[in-house]
């Protein structure tokens, strides 16, 4: 199962994902990390992934920031995918509502494997 | 309507009443001196009816104003009937309304040669002169009308000038109109053009106000019409000349592609700034002397007022810039803090995850324990590596807060000004009743302090907010002179027994010499107040004395000139 992760500082949280993958997915998850939106290429191919995790505060080098990425996915009718938001801003849900986006689960920073699990539970944690 | 016009209307109404009083007195004089055709009772009745009709037509306009005139002449006709009209005193009575025509209180435009009035006079004269027409009487009417024309012309010009001058008063009356000062010049040109007589002799087209700067030349400030592009032939020479002359005329200038050759530059100084009014004409004014009079008696006084308006507007814009600059500094501080939080969130993740994995280790499936232990070791190393940057960032943030200079600009002001600021702020507060004890005398009020005006207002407001928390609702503000120049706020504390411990803590914090110690425990507002007072070198002390919380600010007096 593949997960697309849009995060420009993945190094700091890699072990959290490794621990989560080990304990809850028997290391069967494969995550591909994209530091910026343009690194992914054609966003239509996101449909190939089981989950998409997006850091709302993507680097300024990214063409699309987190919100713009979500809006683009909505435009491509990919907004019903299993999407999770990585963020340190608690008030993000209001912004999602204002943009008429679904209520995606939040993985709040600083993250741990437990917080990743809580977000996956939203979609029914399973292999 | 401007104040001048309103006043003039009121005066005209008063004159209307006085004029009728003069008519009645004159009539009584004629009745007493000359032989009368009717008995005295008819004349008394006529006077009563005249007054009654006049009262009902008072301050009326159009047709009713004409009826008022008819009423006057009907009354005069009765008084004069049967009397010798060739007598000067008697015929003068008939001409009195003509003399008073210039004070007509109706809304219609005053016509010095009033056909209607002349007709009424002639008809009345004809009737009381045994239905005979007297050509010589017509001459009198003509002569007086001619004199009235001259008076009317004088009022016409005065009215024109008042109309221009009232623009500034009306401009500020209508919702301040800040940022729209260009409308003043537009209105000047518009009102000038509405006056057909003056605009024929002075064919004014447009007005532009420039500021003349020493090295940068002319800067456009206001214009009666929008001008995108101004090209001045020999710009440098012109600017040099403008620096030394009071006026220049007929320079070649191109305004948005249109060449202006008939024009005038008027130079004015205000608050050490040089301003130049450029007046463009449609064509050369036909009479030079008329133009000179117009420039010196109308334009220069008007422009000197407009310059003051432009200067005030400029000062307001400078204040706005300062405000936004300070706002920007605050926003930058917030942004720095947000970025720091984001940084710390990322760096803390390994620390948090390390402990999470340690917690989960005992309940992990045996087959996964070894792998988990490897991850724990990795994360332990990551967490340790994170601690140094986290600490460094936090220290950096703490240092920025400690040395933050909150004062951006100060100026020297008099204690008179400071007194006004303190009192105004206190008076704005509705929750506390302030009483004042003023030991400062005239000499004290002339003394100077160095202060940031915006922040001192904030400081006083913040101090009052904090005093209010513990107040019974009354506070005495004393401006001391005896032991140094100081201001104290003595506030009666409510529920002193319950509040004593809290207030002691607040005063202890506030009186700390080390502002960093205070910052750990006090509110943001009081911390800023403390920082400001320290940076401004204003000694401050809070004490709890019996039931009173007293805050004293001792001012540092400066040598220097204040213009406030």
TrEMBL record, chain A:
Pfam families, alphabetized: Response_reg
GO biological process, one term: phosphorelay signal transduction system
UniProt modified residues of type 4-aspartylphosphate: 55
PROSITE patterns registered for this protein in UniProt: RESPONSE_REGULATORY
Signal sequence, start to end: none
Response regulatory domain span: 1-124
Keywords tagged on the record: Phosphoprotein
Protein name: Response regulator receiver domain-containing protein
Species lineage: Bacteria, Pseudomonadati, Bacteroidota, Sphingobacteriia, Sphingobacteriales
Automatic annotation (TrEMBL), chain B:
KW Transmembrane (keyword) present: yes
Bilayer-spanning residue ranges: 12-34, 40-58, 135-157
Keywords linked to the UniProt accession: Membrane, Transmembrane, Transmembrane helix
Domain of life: Bacteria
Protein name, UniProt field: Uncharacterized protein
Organism of origin: Pedobacter steynii
């Amino acid at each position: 199962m593949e997960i697309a992760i849009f995060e420009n500082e993945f190094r700091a949280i890699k072990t959290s994902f490794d621990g989560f993958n080990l304990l809850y997915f028997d290391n069967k998850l494969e995550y591909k990390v994209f530091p910026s939106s343009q690194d992914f290429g054609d966003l239509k191919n996101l449909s190939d992934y089981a989950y998409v995790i997006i850091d709302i505060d993507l680097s300024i080098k990214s063409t699309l920031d987190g919100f713009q990425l979500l809006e683009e996915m909505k435009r491509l009718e990919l907004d019903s995918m299993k999407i999770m938001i990585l963020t340190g801003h608690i008030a993000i849900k209001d912004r999602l509502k204002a943009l008429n986006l679904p209520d995606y689960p939040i993985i709040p920073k600083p993250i741990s494997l437990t917080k990743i699990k809580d977000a996956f539970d939203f979609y029914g944690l399973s292999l | 309507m401007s104040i001048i016009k309103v006043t003039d209307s009121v005066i005209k109404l008063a004159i209307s009443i006085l004029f009728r009083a003069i008519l009645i007195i004159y009539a009584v004089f004629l009745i007493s001196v000359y032989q009368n055709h009717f008995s005295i009772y008819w004349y008394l009745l006529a006077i009563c009816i005249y007054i009654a009709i006049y009262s009902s037509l008072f301050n009326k306009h159009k047709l009713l104003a004409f009826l008022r005139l008819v009423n006057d002449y009907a009354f005069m006709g009765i008084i004069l009937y049967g009397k010798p009209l060739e007598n000067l005193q008697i015929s003068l009575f008939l001409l009195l309304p003509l003399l008073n025509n210039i004070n007509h209180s109706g809304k219609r435009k005053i016509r010095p040669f009033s056909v209607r009035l002349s007709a009424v006079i002639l008809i009345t004269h004809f009737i009381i002169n045994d239905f005979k027409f007297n050509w010589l009487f017509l001459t009198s009417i003509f002569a007086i009308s001619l004199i009235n024309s001259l008076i009317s012309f004088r009022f016409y010009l005065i009215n024109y000038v008042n109309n221009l001058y009232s623009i500034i008063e009306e401009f500020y009356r209508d919702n301040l109109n800040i940022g729209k000062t260009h409308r003043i010049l537009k209105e000047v040109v518009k009102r000038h053009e509405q006056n057909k007589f003056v605009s024929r002799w002075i064919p004014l087209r447009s007005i532009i106000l420039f500021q003349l700067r020493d090295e940068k030349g002319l800067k456009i400030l206001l214009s009666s019409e929008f001008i995108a592009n101004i090209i001045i032939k020999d710009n440098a020479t012109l600017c040099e000349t403008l620096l030394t002359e009071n006026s220049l005329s007929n320079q070649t200038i191109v305004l948005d592609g249109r060449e202006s050759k008939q024009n005038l530059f008027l130079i004015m100084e205000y608050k050490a700034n040089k301003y130049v009014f450029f007046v463009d004409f449609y064509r050369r004014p036909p009479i030079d002397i008329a133009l000179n009079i117009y420039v010196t008696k109308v334009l220069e006084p008007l422009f000197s007022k407009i310059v003051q308006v432009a200067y005030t507007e400029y000062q307001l814009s400078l204040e706005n810039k300062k405000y936004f600059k300070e706002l920007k500094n605050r926003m930058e501080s917030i942004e720095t803090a947000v970025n720091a939080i984001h940084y710390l969130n990322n760096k803390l993740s390994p620390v948090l995850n390390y402990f999470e994995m340690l917690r989960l280790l005992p309940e992990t499936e045996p087959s996964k324990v070894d792998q988990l232990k490897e991850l724990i070791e990795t994360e332990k190393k990551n967490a340790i590596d994170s601690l140094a940057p986290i600490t460094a960032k936090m220290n950096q943030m703490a240092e920025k807060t400690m040395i933050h200079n909150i004062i951006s600009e100060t100026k020297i002001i008099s204690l008179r000004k400071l007194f006004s600021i303190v009192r105004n702020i206190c008076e704005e507060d509705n929750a506390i009743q302030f009483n004042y004890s003023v030991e400062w005398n005239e000499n004290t009020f002339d003394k100077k302090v160095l202060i940031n005006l915006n922040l001192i207002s904030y400081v006083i407001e913040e101090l009052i907010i904090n005093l209010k928390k513990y107040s019974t609702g009354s506070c005495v503000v004393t401006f001391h002179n005896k032991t140094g120049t100081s201001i104290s706020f003595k506030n009666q504390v409510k529920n002193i027994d319950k509040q004593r411990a809290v207030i002691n803590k607040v005063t202890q914090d506030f009186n700390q010499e080390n502002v960093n110690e205070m910052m750990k425990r006090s509110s943001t507002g009081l911390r800023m107040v403390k920082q400001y007072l320290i940076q401004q070198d204003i000694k401050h002390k809070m004490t709890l004395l019996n039931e009173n919380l007293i805050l004293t600010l001792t001012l540092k007096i400066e040598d220097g000139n204040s213009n406030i």
